[in-house]
Specification:
The complex is a heterodimer of chains A (218) and B (468). With 218 residues, chain A is an alpha/beta fold. Chain A has helices at 2-15, 38-48, 61-69, 86-95, 110-117, 169-175; strands at 52-56, 76-79, 102-105, 122-126, 129-133, 136-139, 155-161, 165-168, 185-189, 194-195, 203-204, 211-217. Chain B has a six-stranded parallel beta sheet with strand order 1-10-7-4-2-3, sandwiched between helices. In chain B, strands 8-5-6-9 form a four-stranded mixed beta sheet. In chain B, helix 16 (337-348) runs parallel beside helix 19. Classes of the chains: A alpha/beta (218), B alpha/beta (468). The interface between A and B is large, with 80 and 97 residues. The structure holds iron/sulfur cluster.
């Protein structure tokens, strides 16, 4: 039966008069990239969306990150163990005296980990790419990095490698290695979760993270 | 007008000063923010051209693209279902849920599911569909329908919401603090996300080339619905398909800028399949229901087809002088405002909704802002003609008195002397218009019109602009 519905719908569409194929706009000039350095433009765009943006030196970034997360009242920081940047985190956290936030590894599948995920304070992921215009981070969750890390805990910490910042979203999608088949999930993120559904008053963290901490690795 | 309920609801809305104030200020705010996000008129025009072209290209090849989309989705491991009517679409959703033994679903915002009346249908079959977008959550608690396609609870003020939460959510003290109200919703819905057996969502764009469902949102509830439960079902109209990923950036800019004056939403969620081997999370099954429900009939007409270009940004609502005064509920339809007046008569039939296109001043504000350049006024006029011709909706707009008036106008327009004489009379007597009958009723919600001292012709002459 569903196959029949499909065929009837398509047949109706095919019976409709054909329109000349409108010209393709591929040649239309795209919006120019924002002036100046892409990282600075990204920083400004994200800040305008109430994300907090900081720069980290590539050398010893994890130790520095640990320092900067102190005193934010976070008790734990979730991370995914199989990512290329996990060893640096583990090393930095092992190096100093024990103090919050504690580094906690995601384990197993969401079915195993759900209860711990929903009580965690914060989580860290990496952005696969970023675009200064319109100011988005492109997250690419997959086997190494669960998609819910960037959504469920109230604070989301993101690492953005400086060389992965593109001028425009068009460039980021084209140059960021997002060729088909696409991963099951890609997410563009521009700031903390927000809503204005009550009297159009802006409020943050309604369902997703209330804070987005972006660290650009220089 | 055929729908006397419509007139009654309009009267009611116009008499509600609070409601009018809410809508006027909210819509004015959106209009201002849109201007701020698109400061360069020429650049905006280029972007609109680009967006309109992307939508027209997709529609020109709609049957082929739908097949391509289906192939790509299936290749990505997504189950595809086709539904000719809302009733069939509802059945399909129900069957999937029942096969998985699901009793409660969390739901992201979806106008198509409103069109299908999916929640009520599921409720009749013992399945609880919980709206999780804050605005939708509020109106679901209140037992209402959306009054705007982007901000569904815009007609409610914080005191009403405070009372609603206090009465409907156990253990909630009365508070008008917006932050506190948001926190209540977060707490209540988190539990639902965690425990629901399935998530339901709409789709903003479906990319044929890659088999990708694109969902645009600010709250993160959509990501919760499509990422936490083991089963995700998306419902979409068949017109939502676009050719390729490259079409997405301009359409996203147009959608969010036109809708709420944002450069970009907080999240753009691109779903190209269920959890893959080795993925630690994500739904184990993803289904898409492609809904026709009258769209293929709209498509059959080369002029009316433009209706299907719509990306549901709500911008035409925000700028409509009728919508901003009466709000969304007065229309009594799923889609209100200009796009609703064009879409509803085509989906529901002229008999039922042929009167709607007459509730317009044809001022063209909608068309001027529409990000994908739908010729809304032309479509409104076309549907008016059809309604009159069909004698549908009680022969709206074609009463004997009105016919006489138009005939008189036609006569005067052909005889310049008569025309000038009549308009001179109008100028002299205009101020003395007695507030009787129809005029009196009209005057209750409008300021009295003032006739200009000089006709446009005379004004032109005075400024030295020659007659053509
Ligand atoms: S008709 Fe145009 S302005 Fe109105 S909702 Fe659709 S896309 Fe937006």
């Amino acid at each position: 039966m569903p196959e029949h519905a499909r065929d009837r719908i398509l047949a109706r569409l095919r019976r409709a008069p054909r329109e000349a194929q409108p010209p393709d706009d591929a040649a239309t000039p795209r919006a120019p990239a924002p002036g100046g350095e892409a990282a600075a433009a990204l920083e400004a765009a994200l800040a305008a969306m109430r994300a907090e943006v900081q720069r980290l030196p590539r050398e010893g970034w994890a130790g520095e990150l640990r320092e900067r997360l102190r005193g934010r009242g976070l008790s734990s920081l979730l991370y995914a163990r199989d990512t290329p940047w996990a060893p640096a985190l583990e090393e930095a956290w092992a190096a100093g005296p024990e103090r919050p936030p504690a580094l906690v590894a995601w384990e197993g599948t969401v079915e195993d980990f759900r209860d711990r995920l929903f009580v965690a304070d914060a989580a860290i992921t990496r952005a696969e790419a970023a675009a200064a215009d319109p100011g988005v981070l492109v997250l690419r969750p997959g086997p190494a990095e669960p998609r819910l890390l960037s959504l469920v805990p109230p604070v989301h910490v993101v690492l953005v490698p400086g060389e992965r910042i593109f001028g425009t979203l068009e460039e980021a999608l084209a140059g960021g290695g997002f060729t088909p088949p696409l991963p099951a999930n890609l997410v563009l993120v521009s700031g903390p979760s927000k809503t204005a559904d009550i009297e159009l008053t802006l409020a943050f963290g309604v369902h997703g993270p209330r804070e987005l901490l972006v660290f650009i690795l220089e | 007008m055929g729908d006397s309920g419509f007139e009654a609801r309009v009267e009611q809305a116009l008499a509600d000063a609070g409601l009018r104030r809410n809508f006027a200020s909210a819509m004015g705010g959106f209009a201002a923010r849109r201007l701020a996000v698109f400061p360069d008129a020429a650049a905006l025009e280029r972007l609109r051209e680009q967006g309109a072209a992307a939508r027209r290209r997709a529609l020109a090849r709609l049957p082929e693209l739908l097949e391509e989309l289906e192939r790509a989705l299936v290749g990505n491991g997504i189950h595809v279902h086709w539904a000719e009517t809302a009733a069939v679409g509802n059945r399909i959703v129900l069957e999937i849920l029942e096969a998985h033994g699901v009793r409660r679903v969390v739901k992201g915002k979806s106008m198509v599911s409103e069109e299908m009346h999916l929640n009520a249908f599921l409720a009749r079959h013992g399945i609880d569909a919980v709206e999780t977008d804050l605005g939708e959550f509020i109106i679901q608690l209140a037992g209402e329908t959306p009054s705007h396609i982007i901000v569904p609870a815009v007609h409610k003020n914080r005191a009403q919401i405070a009372r609603l939460f206090h009465e409907k959510i156990p253990g909630t003290p009365y508070t008008e603090e917006v932050a506190e109200l948001n926190a209540v919703a977060r707490r209540t819905l988190r539990r639902m996300f965690r425990e629901a057996g399935a998530g339901l969502s709409g789709v903003n764009f479906a990319v044929a080339a890659t088999g990708t469902l694109c969902l645009v949102e600010n709250e993160g509830n959509g990501r919760m619905c499509t990422g936490v439960p083991p089963l995700h079902i998306a419902v979409m109209g068949i017109e939502k398909v676009i050719e390729r990923l490259e079409d997405l950036p301009p359409l996203l800019r147009l959608l969010t800028g036109s809708a709420t004056g944002q450069r970009v939403t907080t999240y753009v969620n691109l779903i190209s399949g269920p959890r893959r081997a080795g993925d630690p999370d994500g739904p184990r099954e993803v289904h898409v229901v492609l809904l026709d429900n009258g769209r293929s009939a709209v498509y059959a007409d080369p002029e009316l087809r433009a209706t299907l270009q719509c990306i549901r940004c709500g911008c035409c609502l925000n700028h409509c002088p009728v919508y901003t005064r009466i709000g969304g509920h007065a229309y009594g339809t799923t889609y209100p405002g200009p796009i609703g007046k064009v879409l509803t008569p085509q989906l529901a039939g002229l008999e039922r909704a042929g009167g709607l296109p007459f509730a317009s001043t044809l001022c063209g504000a909608c068309e001027e802002v529409c990000p994908v350049k739908i010729p809304l006024t032309r479509l409104l006029r076309r549907l008016r003609e059809e309604t009159v011709r069909a004698g549908a909706a009680g022969g709206a707009g074609a009463g004997a008195l009105e016919r006489l008036a138009w005939r008189g106008y036609g006569l005067s327009a052909q005889h310049p002397r008569l025309y000038r004489l009549l308009f001179a009379c109008g100028r002299w007597l205009g101020g003395l218009m007695p507030p009787v009958a129809a005029l009196e009723r009209w005057g209750r919600a409008h300021a009295e019109p003032r006739f200009a001292r000089l006709s446009l012709r005379r004004l032109f002459r005075k400024r030295g602009i020659p007659d053509a």
